[in-house]
Amino acid sequence: MKYTILSTAILLLQTIDAFQLPFNLGQLPKVFQSDLSLNQPHYSTLKHDDIPINLSQYEDDIVVRLSYEKHLKEYLLLQKDIKFNKWAQNNNARTMDIQIKKSDFYNNLLTKFPNLKYEIIIEDLSQTAYETFPKSNDFTISNDLDFHAQSELFFEEYRNLNTIESWLNLLQITYPQVINIEEIGDTYEHKKLKVVHFQVPNDIDHKSKKTIVITGGVHAREWISVSTTLYLIYQLIRLYNTWPGSKILTQLNFLFIPVFNPDGYEYTWTTDRLWRKNRQETPIPKCFGIDIDHSYDYHWTKSTDWACGEEYSGDIPFEAFESKIWDNYLNETNQEHKIYGYLDLHSYSQEILYPYAYSCNQQPRDEENLIELAWGIAKSIRLKSGSNYQVLPACIDKDSDLLPDLGSGSSLDYMYHNKAYWAYQLKLRDTGSHGFLLPSKYIEPVGDEIVSAIKYFCEFILSDDR
Ligand SMILES: [Zn+2]
After folding, report:
1. How many A from CA of 392 to the centre of ligand 1?
2. pLDDT, tens digit, for every residue of 368-417?
3. Where are the domains of the chain?
């Protein structure tokens, strides 16, 4: 596993005396309940062949929620001497979740900040990772069996790339009039990047339909974003079966990319469940992967993170295979698709992020409407499931006010500025009890709440006159 080590340091911070920082004593209030399911065996009791990947790689790690005041965050983001891996942060609650070696946490960080408020979110990281894999390896999709019956089972667990491709293949066979799957390019590991084109045939000219783009799996470990994108496709198909005349279907055209980072996704199933980037070579041998979401050309800057780090941007814009393929595809199909809406699904935090990511100083066009639409989406989710999603500018979430390169070159900014009128990044569940390792029992609840969000989003776009 690779840790993020940010190499920029600010002189001022080096002079901070840890003991002068205004931290309060004690741990954070206990809000998480450990729900390691009782019916799942502990991975350490299983035979080697029954364990999906080498789970002992996470044995020494924990995930901790830190409560920061003033300088801790800057210290953590900019220091060099403690290795950790940032998972998420909440700027309202002023907390940050990090994955860190137990020894680094207890002997190093806590020694430096003895009054630090914290809570251990994931104590047994190996087991929590293990529990996200399907309970059985037996599930396969057969072209001879009913698509819908198999789909019910398909969404009970997260699925590997092969199974997803078989499901998409059967979807296309079952609904050839609606579904067209395009292979738009080859990744570094020669996997196909696939766009699922969903369009109901009718007498409305294809070119005059508004196009909605929904992507998942940009970051490999965020499995819920992949399952949710697939679930949206499935629910649109079900809508087509029951109400083919629905305006959402007849007047809109959808492009889905459920697995935007197939190489990385595959790697999380075979090697490292917590991998984030793609898998292409970098200038440093043995350090693989570019963060696709830092690779777009709109306000791209080279990341200060090194090639082994999780935020590595590459040396030039569009160096990541996937962002380049996507840009080529959009340019080639420019005349065919008028993109009105773009939703990029990620996890975790339950947030709806609006542009810009690269800077808090540039105001997005239609800012008021952009924010209002985001709150409308949040409300539609809350009404469906009770889940609370926060709305905030992406620059705040990405800390680009602190270190500008952290928010640069994102697909959100690129799509918003060049292609889509209404663009958001949605960070799905949860708010931290499982983080990136959300159990599969949440696939359908999350899918259902995002279906509500998409309906609201589509209705807004249909009623928008531009
Ligand atoms: Zn992500």
Report:
1. 16
2. 999 999 999 999 999 999 999 999 999 988 877 767 677 889 999 999 99
3. 11-123, 147-463
**406 is written with which tokens?**
């952290």
Instruction: Note the pLDDT tens digit of each residue in 338-369.
Output: 999 999 999 999 999 999 999 999 999 999 99
Superfamily of domain 147-463: Zn peptidases (3.40.630.10)
Tens digits of residue pLDDT in 28-75: 444 444 444 456 899 999 999 999 999 999 999 999 999 977 666 666
Q: Kindly give the distance from the C-alpha atom of residue 408 to the centroid of ligand 1, in angstroms, as a whole number.
A: 14
Q: For the domain bounded by 11-123, which CATH number is listed?
A: 3.30.70.340
> How many angstroms is it from 343 CA to the middle of ligand 1?
12
Distance from residue 346's CA to the centre of ligand 1 (Å): 4
Q: Ligand 1 centroid vs 219 CA: distance in angstroms?
A: 5
Residues 97, 98, 102, 105: is their CA dihedral positive or negative? Answer: negative
All residues with CB under 5 Å from ion ligand 1: 219, 346
